[in-house]
Every structure is written in structure tokens, then in C-alpha cells.
Amino acid sequence: MGAYLYLAKMKLMAFLTYRFEVITSLGTNLIILMASVFLWKTAYSGTDAISGVTESQMLTYTIISVLLSSFFSSNIEHSLQERIAQGNIALDFLKPINLIFAYLSEDIGISMSSVVSKLIPVLIISALFVQVPLPGSWLSFLVFLISSMLSYLILWLISALIAVLCFWTVQLGELKTVKDGIILLISGKIIPIRMFPKWMQKVLSFMPFQYVYQTPLSIYINRITRQEIAFSLFIQAIWVLFLSLALIMLWNKARKHVFIQGG
Amino acid sequence: MYLSRVAEYMDKLRYYLSVASYSMKLSMKKQLEYPMEIISCFAMIPMMYATGILLLYFLTQNLKSIGGWTFPQLAFLYGIGDLSHGIMVVFSVQNWFLDRYVNRGEFDRMLLRPLNVFFQFSVSYVNIIGIMDVLVGLSVFIYSCVLVKFSWTFSNIVRLVVIILGAALIRSSIFTIFCSVAFWTKRCSAVTALMNDMLERTTLYPMTIYPRLLQLMLTLIIPVAFISFFPSCCFLGIDSSFRLPADAAVMTPAIGIITFILAQAVFNWGLRNYESSGS
Questions:
Q1: Which of the two ends of chain A, N or C, has the fewest CB atoms closer than 10 A to its terminal CB?
Q2: pTM for this one?
Q3: What is the ipTM of this complex?
Q4: Which domain holds residue B104?
Q5: A228 closest CA partner among A148, A143, A133
Q6: pLDDT of B26-63, one tens digit each?
Q7: Count of structural domains, chain B
């Protein structure tokens, strides 16, 4: 009897631990939301519009950005690093499945779980305390969904490309944090790229980062024309294609490398 | 009588210092085993700090000021925050990984020794990579001092040093207090992430952009405001909308010591719950 009680207690504790983790990572999202909301509220206290964006548009932009970032979590760097360091990768290669797709589906699974644990709570809290983040129109909402799927793929592919480096370096160290830092700054996640100096906007338009956050968010608040929308979706698709090819090439190289190392 | 007691305390202090320096040297040697990782991190860290200062720069390009603070003033606020963060990362980054100590049963060894466990934990790791954090933080800070035309008088330098050390102590104690949750839940990575984001967001912008209730919480409950906000207000002559009982050069170290004592108490409370790794 005592043993069963112990098992039950262990299960309960494991559940509680998990729930605690969920609540704390929800807290992280809420802190980022809160800081950005108050930042923009202060910024708009004297003016009606900053670079043509109204306060309520900017707040919607911020809320949706936090929602996207709670959904856009990639675990591949961590899981691949662990598999390589512990040699489990050798077993993975024996499985009759496409490993890239397997890792992608794992990460999609994690993202789906954060819909319940983070996205919905953040949405409710921001609707109650900030404002209901309504899209510019129904059409822009639909296009936003397509665009954010492409964004997810771009972000995941960038993470996967970094993760594959593990085959050579074994440890990734700070690389993931650096990637997160770069994305924070030049993807439009916190401040729209439109507020950057003109020359910098030009440079950034040749990089994939702004297509991760700025593009879907601008579509959502209806800040860009139809032609621009079509053009950005096209560029997003090009980036997905280009990064996929790069990943496949690097992956095939890495496969050979892992056998040399012995796994 | 008194003299012999003083001598006794001095002996004790010397003993603790020798243990600390030995333990820290050992941890540094362990890290130098993997020089490549250290070199790669040395190249990365400056980039990460650059993002914070660039964010403020781009914002002020469009908004002129944030809550009445101009870019040089914001840079000064960020500089103090950065430098204290760097010092914390060198000496007490092990707080972030307290769950590893718990899960690997690392405290077994420490509990067997006739020495304060919190002391042993505090000196068990010196993060060499953190030296880069300090260097970058220092350069951001000096750059901001040039921007605000900081007057380098002797008393100002002394005030700065105590403030930054006090601020590092506050940061480190906040992590000890919150990461001690690992003694109960066996995990603290999400708490570490939460605290890191919280500290970053609340020290990046002047606290006055937040509602009064939040300002009170950041002053009285989690004393983040003493890390960089109040010191910056004191040095730059900006109204903080709080009446402090003393200068920031007194308050910040004092709050640092109080939180440190609290942190030790919470840590020891958690340690009583420690049940080793079981494997």
C-alpha cells in the first residue's frame, strides 16, 4: 500500500513540477507583454501616431507579437545537441523515417501545447487588461495565418541550421541565445523595422529575420497594401525554399560526419 | 581579551578566504579544459549586449525620449544595469543551475564538510566567460558616462563602486531566492528564464513608465529599482518620484546586504528539504 501511495505522490509531484514550469514560462510572456505595452503607452502619451501607426494599432502589434513568440518555440537546438552529445543520434539514423521531418513534428507538437498553456492565457489577459487585439479585417486575418505559418518555417529552419552545427562542434554554447538576441532586435518583434534608419531597413530587407515577425504583424494590423502583401508572401516562400535547401545540403554533410565521430 | 577574539575572527576570515580562493581556482581550471567553448562565447557576448543598447537607440530616434529620459540618460541606466549583471554572472551564475546541484546530489559532498553550505555553494563556481560580460558592460558604461558627461570626482567613483557592487549583490540574491525553488520542485530553468527576462525588462526602461503599483512592487517586494533606476536618478539629478531615506550610494548596498541575508535564509530553508539524488 505504502509503495502505491509513494508512486501516486511521485506522479502528483511530477505533474505539479510540470505545471509550475508552465506557469513560470507563461509569466515570462506576460512580463514581456507588460513592458512593451507600458513602453508604447508612455511613447504615445504626447502624440497620436508614430511613423503613421496609431496607439491602438501599436498595442495590437505588441500583443500579437507576444502571442506569436509564445507559439514560435524551437527546441531543435537543445534536442539535437543532447542526441549528439549522448550518441543517441546514431540510433536515430537507423530509424526508417526522415529525421528532419521528425524533429520538425516534435517542435510543432511543443508549439501546439503552448497554444493551451501560453497563447490562450496571454490572449485572455491582454483582452481584459489592454485591449482586444482585433485584426485590420477578416481578410487580413486569413492572410496573417498563412504568413505566420511561413514565418514559423523560416524561424525553425534558421534554428535547425544552427542546430546542425552541433555535428561539428558538439556544444552550441551561447549560439541559441545569440540567435534569440538577433531576432529580438531585427525581426520587428519589439520595435517595427519601419522605425529603423532607412539604410538599415535596406540591409535588413535582404535578411530573413524581418519576415519572421514584421511581415505577419504588419499584415495583421493592415499596415501594408495588397501588392506589398503578395510580394512579402512571395519573399517568405523564397526564404523557406532557400533555407530548406541549405539545411538539406548541410544535413547530408553532417550525416557523413557523424559516422567519422563514431556516434 | 578583545584582542584575542579579534585574532580569532581574523584567523577564521583568513581560513574562509583561502577555501574560497582554492575552490574558485579549481572551478576556473575545470573550465579552461574546453578553450574552444570559451573563445566562441567571448565572440558572442558583445553582440548580445549590443542588442539592448541598439534597441534604446532606435527607440529614441523615433520617440526623442522615453518617459522623459534622453538616449544618453537611458544609456547610463543601461550601463549600470549591464555592469552589475556582468559581475553577478562572474561570481554567482551557479544560482541559475541550482537544480543541477540538487539533481546530481552535489550538496551531499558539501553537507559532509564542516563548513557553511551556502558559503561552499557561493564559491563553488567562478564563470570565466562572465569576464567578457564585465568587459562589455564596462565599455557600455564608460561610453554612457561620456554621453552624460559624468564628473569623475573621487567621491563619485567611490559611490559608483559601492552602488555597482550592491546592485550585483541584489541581482545575485534575487536569483538565489527564486532558484531555491529547485529544492522543492527539482527544477529551476523556467524560473531562471523568468527572472532574467524580468530583470532585463525592468532595468532597460526607466521605472517611471510603469504604473505606480508596479513601481512600488519593484521597490519594496523585488527591489529591482535599487539596481540601476535609483542610482541613475541620483547621479543624473532626475526626479524618481520616490523619497529615499538616503543617497543611492547608501541605499543600494544596504538593500544588497538585506536581500543577501534573506537569500541565505531561503537557501538554508530549502536545504532542509534537500533529499539527495537517490541514484
A1: N
A2: 0.82
A3: 0.79
A4: 28-277
A5: A143
A6: 888 777 766 666 666 666 677 777 778 888 888 888 87
A7: 1
